[in-house]
Amino acid sequence: MGMAMGMNLANAPHIVASTSNWDPSNQGTTTPRTPIRILIPTPPAYIQYHISCQDLSIRCCQLTRPGLDKGNAECRKSLNLPTNRKFNFAELYTINMCIEECNFIGSGYIEIDPPYRLDLANIRINLKGFAPQPQEKSIPFLIDAYQKCHIFRSSHGNRFTLHLPDIDFIEEPCNPFSMQITICLRIHAMQKCPGQFFVDSEECRLAREYFTQCVGDIETNLA
Q1: C-alpha torsion angle, residues 95, 96, 97, 101 (rounded to 10)
Q2: What does the pLDDT look like over 22-68, one tens digit per residue?
Q3: Domain coordinates of the chain in residue numbers?
Q4: How far is the CA of 104 from the CAs of 59, 75, 123, 174, 181, in angstroms?
């Protein structure tokens, strides 16, 4: 994805892609009404391609629907976010980074303190509670995706790195590990979503082609 450390996002060519579950300012719903996007600097030859959170998480691959895991909603509530305001990009990214960390720790995916390692046994147990049917297809794909993304992040973690300002209503800083795994998982799902969970529309086929050819295939970049 080419997100280098220290990158000046304001001046870089970019595409826009989903990174998170939903806009927490949309209270009382797990269906995003405001796309949450991450700016990904890309070479000038790449065109700008806009895919919202709905497109990635709901429309194209059923395995990454944000409302499947109820832990996300519980973690959002625990942040005690300010109400009646619209969050900017840095705030949204930080909020969702904290939601992902909270859910990973609460679900037993990682320990409380770094260095973080995914607990695949706990991930499998948790997936049994919400992964789509048939689970004999969905759970192995997701476990494999978590494994691949753990390896990918170890070698290419700087691609997911953003330097963000402090957010005044976030009391404790959050580690980006969980968010980086989730970003990778969503990209991999766009590229390799099993046929029975993939929405075979022209829009989704175009998105899959773009994320495979232009973002880079996760599976072929694990070394």
Answers
A1: 110
A2: 444 444 444 343 333 333 333 222 223 333 434 455 678 989 876 77
A3: 14-221
A4: 24, 10, 9, 12, 10
Confidence (pTM): 0.74
Residues 6+ apart with CB under 8 A from 58: 31, 65, 66
Q: Which residues pair with 16 in a beta bridge?
A: 39, 50
Q: Which of 55, 46, 19 is nearest to 216 (CA)?
A: 46
- The matching CATH number, chosen from 1.10.238, 1.10.3470, 2.40.50, 2.60.40, for 14-221 is 1.10.238
Name the nearest CA neighbour of 1 among 193, 149, 167.
149
DSSP code of residue 73: H
Distance CA 44, CA 18 (A): 20
Residue 211 and residue 117: Cα distance in Å, rounded? 26
- The β-bridge partners of 37 are 18
Sign of CA dihedral 189, 92, 55, 220: negative
Backbone angles phi, psi at 33, to 5 degrees: -100, -20
Structure tokens at 37: 């996007």
DSSP designation for 110: S
Round to whole Å and give the CA distance between 64 and 189: 7
Tell me the backbone φ, ψ of residue 32, rounded to 5 degrees.
-70, 130
